[in-house]
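U., I forgot to send this yesterday:
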Amino acid sequence: MDIVIFVVSMAALIYGADFIIEQSEKIALHFNISSFIIGATLVALGTSLPEMAVSITASMRGSGDMAVANVIGSTIFNISLVLGAVFLIGKKIAPHRDLFAKDSAWSLFPILVFILMGIDGQLSRLDGFLFLILMVAYLIFLIQSDQMEDIDEEPKEKFGWGKTILLLCIGFIFVIGGANSAIASASNIAQDFGVSQWVIGLFLVAFGTSLPELTVSIKAALSNNADMAIGAIIGSNVANFTMVLGLSAIVDPLKVDLSTNFFDITAALIVSVMLVFITANKLYNKSAGIVLLTVLALVVSHSF
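Result:
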């Protein structure tokens, strides 16, 4: 039964991603907003809701380690798996936006702030508020940078707010609901095969909450919308550290053990640096995708 639920959940993710991509592009065209900005804000925040739900719930139940591990694991999966898959599957990855000059620092800065905040062994409520302020700064930066870009696309069809909002809501419900169902069913499958709860929490939950980013980004890449695909990944990582950890820490201060979790945190830092390197050298190709997926395989094999 769990296998059937998992398959249905994946189908819901795919159909939900279709709705999100299509309607997000219509919003971008209607308001003359770049696809990257839509991906880094609307799509990224929407696909980060599973991480937010899992981490805040874990924080409320006193399981701070789960909240932190979910964000660290999601960062690893978002960059190594999602971006790697985008590079391998996408027909032509050629972002219009200069990602290195404008956005690469935002893929690295939040995790550096997290490490600095975690030196004292916890993320306090003050740290949580500072994270939220960082998210606001990111949104302001995106708005200002978008105003400086020339968008020469024209609306291709009549735009209607009612239909767009309805389909966006349906898309997010399918994506988020599908992700949650996939997590639950996959956890049951893993337990049936005798996989430990630690492995399930660190990898399966993080992988499950990254499914929306994976599905949406691949759909965008297949539609030759590289800006939205990469924007969703960068924006989601920023949202995971700032909003997810920020709100979780405000609900209940989170314990952070940098030494015990050294390997996982270092892995998240390394893939973030790799993203900066890729954007700096415009390595948007299959070779970069293979390298990212190889790093993910090394991380998984080491942990197992």
